[in-house]
Write a structure and sequence with these properties.
506 residues, seven-stranded mixed sheet, four-stranded antiparallel sheet, globular
Length: 506
Amino acid sequence: MFHVKTSRKCCSPSTSSSIPSCHSAREAVFLVLERCALHRPVQAALHEILDRVTLSEQDKALTTELVYGYLRREPSLRWIVAHYLKAPEKLPPAMLQRLESAAYELFCLDRIPAHATVDTTVSEIKKRFGQSLSRVANGLLRNLVRLHEQEGSLDRVLVCLTSQDHQLTPLEQLEITSGVPQWILSLWHSAYGEETAHQLAESASKTPWSCIRINRLRPGWRASLEHFCRPPSSSGFDKSMNAGFDECMNATLPAACGEQVGFSGVRFPPGKNQASLRQGLLAGDFSRQGGGSQALLAALLSEGEEDPGVLSGSSATPPGRLRSAPVLEDWYRGKPFWDACAGYGGKTFALAELGLNIWAASDINLSRLQGIRREARRLHLSPPPIFCASAAAPALRKGPPLVIVDAPCSGLGTLARRPDLRRLRRPEQISELVALQKDLLRACWELTPAGGRLVYMTCTVNPGENEQQVRAFLAEHSEAELHREWRNTPNACGTDLMYGAVLRKA
């Protein structure tokens, strides 16, 4: 029986205090992957390496793309390399990792010539592992080049090859083709059925879309939203905008038009939004926030019965078109709110930009709270009241009429954006997270006044942390009423998969 291993011991991983010299993006990739093998989050590992090596901005961008792409498709790449080797278990793990990374380049990065990938990889393996193993690498990579020329994309190759291996179970085959660990696939299969599990797995294997949130407190925010959502034209984007967009947009990218999401968000297909957003970000004209988060807020807080937050691969609104904006429900206007698990403050300031008042923002992580103050200054807002405490034991006597609980969760809805969770997350953690979420709900509900509302949200796809968690809470609290509930569909393209519920207190 075939089993895809999602972790591998690396040879002599470097310590953070001693980073070897690095002269190429590929070398930086393996330094980052060494740290990921030590259960470091990929973002932290990238920052640690890229901040301390001398590489061009282009090479740093390539490093990031290679790392995320590799982690997203690691089981797929591992299987296809092993498929063409007689005894992969006898080869050095570090060599296998280089072959797998090269396979990703060959199948997924067309802008890098195949001969360059083969020659560079073989040369590196020869230098580190010797002449005989370089011949093995050369033969394997030549086979993969021919396979790519015959079959095309990695997805097509994997479907073709796995369908010929009759020893694979359906879950094993799906793990290989999607890169999602079997225990997650089993959870999805038992919870949602085979078809939805396949849709979720496919979504997790895709490169996520990039997304920004227009700052509604800045002058001309409506014009800015229209600017980003403008359909493409032969002359590219109109550069007559103020508020710092002149240098942000690139006239050579007419296909980079975005699609509105949520109240004032814009999302861009992967690879299409190549223009720098640095000036607009520095000016506080917009922020980076995931499309899933913005869609969730719009779905939970909008008036009416429509679903303004839906994101799907077959959206009725064509990319580059501004659709009808959702309208905030009257109850929320001007309401003070407590963001009980604020993190870096993405949702905190999104709500403030909608006209709600920040009563307080709290988190158990002090460094995240310090980031909230910096973000407030960037957005031209007064720093909100913050305190460091667990929302499960906040040491408060009462809270405001609105409490936001963006609960710690397994993050299974973010596998496309956070591919390292395939390594970091473990099945036994689920029960611990469910217990923590229960404690958070109980503690925050006690502080919610009569007539108030508690918004519970996660970025996972797991009924035990979502629907079942809320149903169990409602069964234990007769004064609680489910006002609204939302989960975006598994075919939502390019975004985190989110869940949220609004509970009203009688």
